[in-house]
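Issue 218. Parser rejects a valid record. Input:
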Amino acid sequence: MKIYVSHDYIRSHYKHILESDAILIVNNEKHGVKNYIGGNVLMEMGMAYVNNKKIFFLTEMPTEAPYLDEIHAMQPICLHGDLINISKNI
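Output the parser choked on:
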């Protein structure tokens, strides 16, 4: 756990989000959950959302998470596995 605190990744990622136009979430399957979104990614999505950054999911919207309402509220754009779809939504 110390490594995460010593590198201050949360603030570092926040600075990158502020410098960006959008974020891309690579939500592959993890732990047997299709289109997985974990706690850290949810936090980054929230950071992007409150700073008016677009949120893209590489795959589809997750269907298994205790925070699906929050994910839907941030209105992520699903790319359906095709990065070319970013240009259609900028």
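Fixed in the parser; the record now loads. The chain has four helices and three strands.
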